[in-house]
Structures are given as C-alpha cells and as structure tokens.
Specification:
Layout: E1 6-10, H1 17-31, E2 38-42, H2 45-55, E3 60-64, H3 81-87, E4 90-93, H4 96-102, H5 106-118, E5 122-127, H6 131-135, H7 139-151, E6 167-170, H8 184-203, H9 205-210, E7 212-216, H10 224-228, E8 235-238, H11 245-263
Parallel strand pairs: 1-2, 1-8, 2-3, 3-4, 4-5, 5-6, 6-7, 7-8
Bound molecules: 1,3-dihydroxyacetonephosphate (13P).
1,3-dihydroxyacetonephosphate binds next to strand 8.
C-alpha cells in the first residue's frame, strides 16, 4: 500500500490578504518542481478566496482551519461545510488550539468530520496529548479516545484510487509552537502502536493502512527528514515554518526525497 505523502501548512491566525499575496507566489515558484508530495495551504478564512486564485493552475491544494457542522442557519460567526467545500478540498478539524481555546470536544469533532465528508471535503483530524498527559503516561489513552470518540459512527472506505478521504495528524500539544519537536522515533511509535491499531479496530486493517497520518509540532526544514524517514509517518502539518517560503519549500522537498528513497 503506497500512501502519497502530504505536507500541509497551517497558517493559523496569520497573514492578511495582502501578506498572503506576497507569500503564495514565492511558494508556487519554489514548489512547482517538487513531485511525489501533495502540498496543501490552510490560510485563515479571510484569505481563502485570494489564495485560491493564486493557486489556480498549480498542484497545490487548499484547506480551511475549521468549520461548523450545521448546513446553514442562525450561527453568527460560523462557516458551513458547503461554504468551505466551495473553495477547499481539505479542512483541519479538532486542532488542539480549538480544543484548548474554543472548547471543542470529541463530540464536536465527530459532527464536523461527518459533515465534512458529506460535502466531499477531506478532513485532517488532529489528535495529541498535552504535556501533563504525556508525563503521566496517558498518551495512548488520550490519543485512542480522541480517535474513537472523534470518529464514532463515521463511515470510511478505501476508494477506487486506494485512498481514504480522511487524514489524521498526530500533534503532541507540548511540541506545538514550542520548538521542542517529538523525536521521529517517538512520533512513529505513537502512529504505529496507537493510531493505526485504533483505526484498524474501527475500520479494519485495509482502511487503517490507507489512512495517511501526518506529524505536527515544531516541524522545520532542518528536522523534517527525521519524521519523513519514519515508515508510519506520511507527511506533516506545519505551523510556524509554513509562514516562511524557504522553510516550507525545504520541508516539502525533504518529504519528496525521504519518501522516494523509501520506495526505491
Ligand atoms: P508549529 O509547527 O508552529 O509547532 O505548529 C504545529 C501545528 O499546530 C500545526 O497544526
């Protein structure tokens, strides 16, 4: 089973439209010759339309960072699945910053995942333990719960192309924005010993092997290869380093060369 590597840049609450118009052409130029990796940009909602126009004719995909699960209605400040699907192919769901600052729960993530799949979006479902949970040996319990609860009742199948329209991102909270990335080996162990077995228990081995699992947390050009060399890690969800063209391009090329090496 070959899982095409994917590198997504989560811009978080950064970049105005004007700033995005400076960054995106640099990314398009630097990424155009890198093959064998899916590239995705996830700007804030306000910049989606402009970034979409700048990505026209390129192989770079577009994702949102969140959405609501309801189809439409009186939900001031929210954005519907259909609105996101009009512009994007991907949506990040259950990011730890949404769980921590905006009270997002596993149940909310589940509703959003179902709604995203229903409109043809590929959700990137984020899971990961806090520092305290990690120090108390709770990583496995927390990550398994986030997946089991976040995906309960969500139907997943391998499609004709051999893929599954859902990705998981393992983002240990203690590694996000701290400069302290997990080691490739530790992240891989969580993927292979917790994430894929949990997916297998929910959906069977075939689906579990087809789901792409990304690592996120202080990934930069200098440490990216360490993650991509791991057999269980299929790409990265990049925060801070995705705001700098050189860094993000460096990460995508590291994915291209590591994963190609694994195939030869
Ligand atoms: P950093 O790469 O800034 O640590 O953020 C990771 C992240 O949260 C991506 O979603």
């Amino acid at each position: 089973m070959i899982r095409l590597p994917l590198v997504a840049g989560n811009w978080k609450m950064h970049k105005t439209i004007a700033e995005a118009r400076q960054l995106v052409p640099e990314l398009v130029y630097g990424l155009q010759d890198i093959e064998g990796v899916q590239k995705v940009l996830c700007p804030p909602f306000t910049a989606l339309l402009s970034v979409k126009a700048l990505l026209e004719g390129t192989d770079i995909g577009l994702g949102a960072q969140n959405m609501f699960w309801e189809t439409e209605g009186a939900y001031t400040g929210e954005v519907s699945p259909k609105m996101v699907a009009e512009l994007c192919q991907y949506v990040i769901l259950g990011h730890s910053e949404r769980r921590i600052y905006f009270g997002e729960t596993d149940e909310g993530v589940r509703r959003k995942v179902k709604a995203a799949l229903a409109v043809g979006l590929s959700p990137i479902v984020c899971v990961g333990e806090t520092l305290e949970e990690n120090e108390n040996g709770k990583t496995e319990v927390v990550v398994r719960r986030q997946l089991e609860e976040g995906l309960r009742g969500v139907e997943l199948e391998v499609d004709e192309s051999g893929g599954v329209p859902l990705l998981v991102a393992y983002e240990p909270v203690w590694a996000i924005g701290t400069g302290k990335a997990a080691s490739g080996e530790i992240a891989n162990r969580v993927v292979e010993e917790v994430i894929r077995p949990t997916l297998a228990s929910l959906y069977g081995e075939r689906v579990a092997q087809a789901v792409r699992v990304l690592y996120g947390g202080s990934v930069k050009a200098a440490n990216a290869a360490e993650f991509f060399e791991q057999p269980g890690i299929d790409g990265a969800l990049v925060g801070g380093a995705s705001l700098k063209a050189e860094e993000f391009i460096g990460i995508v090329s590291a994915a291209a060369s590591s994963k190609q090496r694994q195939l030869t």
